[in-house]
Amino acid sequence: MKRPIDRDRLKNIRLLALDVDGVLTDGTIRLDGAGGESKVFSVQDGSALKRASAAGVEIVWISGRTSPAVAARAKELGVTAVYQGVEEKTGVLDKILAGKGLSWKQAAAVGDDLNDLAVMRKCGWSAAPSQAHPAVAAAADYVTGTPGGGGAVREVVDLILEARGRALS
Amino acid sequence: MKRPIDRDRLKNIRLLALDVDGVLTDGTIRLDGAGGESKVFSVQDGSALKRASAAGVEIVWISGRTSPAVAARAKELGVTAVYQGVEEKTGVLDKILAGKGLSWKQAAAVGDDLNDLAVMRKCGWSAAPSQAHPAVAAAADYVTGTPGGGGAVREVVDLILEARGRALS
Amino acid sequence: MKRPIDRDRLKNIRLLALDVDGVLTDGTIRLDGAGGESKVFSVQDGSALKRASAAGVEIVWISGRTSPAVAARAKELGVTAVYQGVEEKTGVLDKILAGKGLSWKQAAAVGDDLNDLAVMRKCGWSAAPSQAHPAVAAAADYVTGTPGGGGAVREVVDLILEARGRALS
Amino acid sequence: MKRPIDRDRLKNIRLLALDVDGVLTDGTIRLDGAGGESKVFSVQDGSALKRASAAGVEIVWISGRTSPAVAARAKELGVTAVYQGVEEKTGVLDKILAGKGLSWKQAAAVGDDLNDLAVMRKCGWSAAPSQAHPAVAAAADYVTGTPGGGGAVREVVDLILEARGRALS
């Protein structure tokens, strides 16, 4: 949170790779007795992702789990690059970047748990939400002031857009 | 939160325009696997809105999204002026005010995200909940101590009624 | 929270009257798109209410609203005195006390909103959860360190049982 | 939280006995109007339990209540030793330990309420989540910085694995 922000690296970001549980959601698994699962997303994160897309930043969601609620939220926001049930996130993102002619330095990643570390270390810039596993927070370039599902993605998007000189308002 | 409260401007307020997600709710999008969406409102906000109506303050809800849970909550509280799926909030509120013979100075607005800024700047007084986007909090006349869906509307209603010299209890 | 605890008055308590929304629950109204409403209770509150009953303290729930989830939770805990949809709480509690041969001094009340003030002022002792309306917190004999639905009732029960010299463990 | 950690005792732990409500969940009872109950678990707790199993630590869930959501979450995580509706937790764990040829010193327990105290006192090491009943927190060897359902189990697993010299990464 208090770490200096490396605007030079942020300026190069063309793709934002987001873990889902604990980054786009609050990291809870909410199960009802009938086997259904619900997810908690943030409205502010959603409007931030629309700003990012409008500014030309590609958005990718990569989750180790699979949930129809995630697909529903992605559809509502117009996010088409959604990869669920991914065990090896680095390989998936490597192919995505190659397909778009982008380098790892042009990608930023946000993750909260140990299985996100490999992707975060390869990306040009990385962030962790406030409730991330301590080892992930320690490895990230930035720790947001808000938790996953509570504004963490909004904070990251604002940093990327501000590094490009975009005014908010 | 620590900003001085301008009671002279608050005294003139006859209409309170509320954003829904992040103001009347906690700003979360809760999706289940079957496509349903639930919303989290505050009981204290509800009783405060009844006090405001009883004191002659008109209540208007304006949301950029659309959800049946919002309509259900408005019906329970007797709020009839509910506008959902509104892209351009300023135009909608302009017509509402004209229809009631009220000026923008007689309206107060509460919003939490960048798309609320235009309405908030035109109103006679504005507030943001504690979890608002920093640019919205900076532009607001007042930042509540509680978040949306957790008492923010209750705080605003109490300020308006107190400026009119209404005792609580 | 930091107020001195009047153990002499607490020792006389034979009946605990609890508001529901914001006291036994977290004060949220959770609505889904199909018209259903869910409530958030605390497990620790539940086990505390069983301890109170076992120690001979009568438990009464009085709510201004009506929800089947409240009836379901009361049934699970074995609480039979549940009054929902009550507009005038003082009158209801007056009859309950008379029927049991108890005085108002032998009753404690927990409430979080302005419509709880009348009952709280008549009871021998009163408490407000941490997120109560400021005017209710100011009027209460005690403000819990936890919010409604998050342990506030557990705190109150422990105070009553401790005043009687009951050890926990 | 600030108590010194006894790594010698932690090194011996071969079995981790977890209370469910308030330890694996956030301690809330969430009821809908149709009689359904949902539970809130943590994704980080889930991945930690997989790490513990992979390292040879046996995982046991013991709950005084019964909920199909608990069975569903256990199944997703591959936890097979799940005991629900248990009134006398000590006796159940005693049989489990005997069946595996383990002593109480080789077991750790995490609990949040008074009915967990007996098991916690018999185990070689015990922890309480941040929102535990004060008497339980006082009796525990360790109080986590996070609440139940919000990372408490993750913290405990990391302590056990670190005492064995396992690096996270």
Structural write-up:
- Four copies of one chain form a homotetramer.
- With 169 residues, chain A is of the alpha/beta class.
- Helices cover 40% and strands 20% of the residues of chain A.
- Chain A has eight helices and eight strands, in the order αβαββαβαβαβαβαβα.
- In chain A, the strands form two sheets. The first copy, chain A, has a six-stranded parallel beta sheet, with helices on both faces. In chain A, strands 2-3 form a two-stranded antiparallel sheet.
- The longest helix of chain A is centred in the first third of the chain and has 12 residues, at 43-54.
- Chain A is globular and about 50 Å long.
- The two termini of chain A are 23 Å apart.
- Chains in contact: A-B, A-D, B-C, C-D.
- At the C-D interface, strand 3, helix 3 and helix 4 of C face strand 2 of D.
- Strand 3 of chain B pairs antiparallel with strand 2 (28-32) of chain C.
Key features of this structure:
globular, 8 strands, alpha/beta, six-stranded parallel beta sheet, 169 residues
Q: What's the shape of chain A?
A: globular
The radius of gyration over CA of chain A amounts to: 15 Å
Summarize the amount of helix of chain A as a percent range.
40-55%
Mean pLDDT of chain A: 95
User: What are the segments of chain A in which pLDDT stays under 50 over at least 5 consecutive residues?
Assistant: none
Distance between the termini of chain A: 23 Å
Spatial strand order of the main sheet of chain A = 5-4-1-6-7-8
Kindly name the structural category of chain A.
Answer: alpha/beta
Major sheet attributes of chain A: 6 strands, parallel
Work out the largest interface and the residue count of each chain: A-B, 27 and 21 residues
- Please report which band the strand proportion of chain A falls in: under 5%, 5-15%, 15-25%, 25-35%, 35-45% or over 45%: 15-25%
Order of helices and strands of chain A: HEHEEHEHEHEHEHEH
Write down how many β-strands of chain A occur, each being a DSSP E stretch of 2 or more residues: 8
Oligomer: homotetramer
* Number of alpha- plus pi-helical segments of chain A: 8
